[in-house]
Amino acid sequence: MENSFKAIVINKSDNTPYCAKLDTVSLNSLPDNDVKIKVLYSTLNYKDGLAITGKGPVVRSFPMVPGIDLVGEVTSSANAEFKAGDTVVLNGFGVGEKHWGGLAEQASLSADWLIPMPNELTAKQTMQIGTAGYTAMLSVIALEKQGITPESGDILVTGANGGVGSFAIYLLNKLGFNVVAVTGRPEQSDYLTKLGAKQILHRDEFSNPGKPLAKERFAAAIDSVGSHTLANICASLKYGGVVTACGLAQGMDLPASVAPFILRGVSLIGIDSVMRPKADRIEAWDRLSKLVSVDYLDTISNEINLTEVLSSADELMAGNIRGRVVVNCQS
Ligand code: NDP
């Protein structure tokens, strides 16, 4: 094995302004974790875009290798759970924020953060799904655990053209739910219909301050937007309705009233994918591996290599990318 590897490296110090570049790094510089990995694929998530461009306070220490998710082959392991040759998946756990991440040819990670890659998927397919698909699956499972079924009624999905929203529409439709998509890009309606949306609403209907209680319309919702949108969803759920909240694309605030909770028994379920226990991760990836068809993955993703990551991060932050960006870390 060579004694250096390529990685996107973010630096900042008293003398150096915030800067990300493709660099060559000594293998000896890898963090001292128990599983060493040859990274096969990573992805560009919104959080990676913030980290690379410096537009959000994602990176907690420098130098940092970004990349919050990856699939890789174990090259050596000091932990009995994994051995050389195993293919593993990583989502979250502060990787790419406070631990060196996936946008590199090599990584060194804790066995506690890793799960085996599902047998039914290839490394590329697993990252085509990535953290967005995994978070959407966790959201769908949360609705199921609250007793929501296709017979319950319509399910609203916000941020429909985003990574989480697109996967949520696709997965819910596959499971037989009637999906209503909310988007600010109605010109993408054909794409959303192909994913499985049966009705498409404009996001303006939800994004402004609304009443504490509105007409009961939806049995459940998967929200990645927050703010007034989430407040209006709570107000529009039917008696006993459920909404999952995973994101803040509109805002971090939640300007809601307690009326839907105390008068209609509505439930608001928080979804965190980053620190999720291993058993939940394995359940979600197992469900994804059985539900997602390969054809779908090819229509929603675009492959790049490490040399294209910086320009793609700029495009992502400019809102010019639809679907998932998969990074081949060995090409
Ligand atoms: P994307 O950027 O891919 O998608 C976000 C979507 O939200 C956009 O495509 C857009 O959809 C919609 N949107 C954007 N701006 C606004 C706005 N001002 N008001 C209403 N809708 C808006 O992000 P992801 O899908 O990857 O992630 C979505 C959110 O979930 C992010 O906040 C992310 O940080 C969070 N997240 C949280 C996780 C967790 O563990 N809790 C894990 C993964 C993501 P459209 O064009 O259709 O309107």
Report on this structure.
The chain is α/β, with parallel strands linked by helices. The chain folds into two domains: 149 residues, Medium-chain alcohol dehydrogenases, catalytic domain (Quinone Oxidoreductase, Chain A, domain 1), CATH 3.90.180.10; 140 residues, Rossmann fold (3-Layer(aba) Sandwich), CATH 3.40.50. It is built from nine helices and 15 strands. Strands 3, 4, 5, 6, 7, 14 and 15 form a seven-stranded mixed sheet that branches. A six-stranded parallel sheet has the order 10-9-8-11-12-13, sandwiched between helices. A hairpin with a 7-residue loop joins β1 and β2. The mean pLDDT is 96. The site of NADPH dihydro-nicotinamide-adenine-dinucleotide phosphate has 30 residues, from α1, α2 and α3.
Explain the layout of strands and helices.
Layout: E1 4-11, E2 19-26, E3 35-44, H1 46-53, E4 69-77, E5 87-91, E6 106-109, E7 114-116, H2 123-145, E8 155-157, H3 163-174, E9 179-183, H4 189-195, E10 197-202, E11 218-223, H5 227-236, E12 237-245, H6 259-264, E13 267-270, H7 278-291, H8 294-300, E14 301-305, H9 309-317, E15 324-328
Parallel strand pairs: 8-9, 8-11, 9-10, 11-12, 12-13, 14-15
Antiparallel strand pairs: 1-2, 3-4, 3-6, 3-15, 4-5, 5-7
Helix pairs in contact: 1-9, 2-3, 2-7
The chain binds NADPH dihydro-nicotinamide-adenine-dinucleotide phosphate (NDP).
